[in-house]
Here is the input.
Amino acid sequence: MITREGKGDSGVLPRGQMHLKRLVIALILVPLLFLYVMYLPPEYFLFLLTFFSTLGMAEFYAMSRINAALKYAAIACGAAIMFVFFMAKGFFVHVLVLSVLVLAGLRLVIQRNPGAAVADVSAAAFGLLYIPGLLVFQLDLVKAGPQWIVLLYASVWAADSMAFYVGTHLGRRKLYPEISPNKTVEGAAGSVVGGILGAALIKAVIHQELSFGHMIITGAVIGIATVVGDLVESMFKRDAGIKDSGSIVPGHGGVLDKMDGVTFAGPAFYFLCLALGLI
Here is the structure.
């Protein structure tokens, strides 16, 4: 993700091949996402987001090494949380609490050994907050207008891409070597610039009503949140002793590796929009 030289933290792919794969995938996925979000009802975005949330949760629980039954129950709870938030938001907290109770009760039943029980239930419950719990804010954004989702993802993609290229070619000072040795201060600054450029592009194309000041603020906040989200996922991967959350996305690692920035950028952007009175 941000400020990586080579393939993520693993350095498996040569730099030129890594750049080419990133470009090809972006050229395919970005227009498809634009068309999907802009021309289909919000319900379709719910299905898409739930699908990727499910994949991300599967990767996170694989990192956490929890029991398979607990893993699949948590993934089912995560999908329920997404649908309840979209269709009956008033029951969101109820379903979240009920999900934690179900997971704790299930751990009690499936494994008599109390050892690591707190770790198992905590990992399962945290996965609900970390992935569907953070992604649900995008459902409110898409209801406010598909242009907000396009702005969010365009800014995150631009922030991530700018951080990658700036960090690769200009990065000198380490940002947080204990968590991610290849990320640099220059790459983080590139993420902020990229977020602003992404917001500027969407403002010019489909979001002319967004003021220049709001464009700068939203782009910068998304750029900063993308860096934080990336570092948080890197922290979890380093704790698990792995370099990528998976390998489902060619040249990019796992689904969670691609979602890490937007998991934090989505809520940050949503609350900023509320504070600025944009939605």
